[in-house]
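Q: Could you fold this chain for me?
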Amino acid sequence: MKKKTFIIANWKMNLSLSDSSNFLKKICKFKMPLGNLFEIVICPQFLLIPNLSKLLGSIVKLGAQDCHYATSGAFTGDSSIKLLKYFKCKYVIAGHSERRILHKESNIEIKKKVTLISSEGLTPILCVGELLNERKKKLHKQKIISQLQESIPTNLKNIIIAYEPIWSIGTGTIPSVYEITEVTEIIFNFLRKYRNHTKFHIIYGGSVDSKNFKLILEIKNMSGALIGGASLHIKEFKKII
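A: Sure. Below is the predicted structure, expressed as structure tokens.
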């Protein structure tokens, strides 16, 4: 049986209303026999979601870059998962390194988000990854396992784990196949042994482009990629697809 492949675009805080609309319209025109084995997910900044939700075609799903762990309340500047569902989001990213670093998000907070995302029937995309000095000191295994243990609730029905080495994001430097495989095996074995998941997928993120995507997909237990910069350019994104 062929594995399901995920191509998930994290647009971060980029693209205007018109540019994002034109981008999505072009993707929706792709003539491809995708079936149930291929999923394109677009995760735009929040203010683009309402407009893009009107333009979705059959081959593209909508995701969000984050949400709050509460459904409502006095949380200035945060976004509710209820509205994300209303605007047809099917996926939500949680624990991206930029949120962990710039917004000081802890594994405890991220676990609350993953729990809420799942309870609302959406699929959490949990990001894990190590700093460069942690990799050099060979602390990356411990770091990944700690993030998994502290960020994933038990009895989760569905989750995507995105391995994003922090030192690779936006740098153009990608780990070797061996380095990615090593972490992928750690994640796979953890989920099989310590969590009773009925379904999970592992993807890679960090300087992914059309030149290295195929090689990444060939890694054992790898189901796709979380793509940043390359997902902002329609020609490059089409090449990846």
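A (continued): The CA atoms of residues 36 and 125 lie 19 Å apart.
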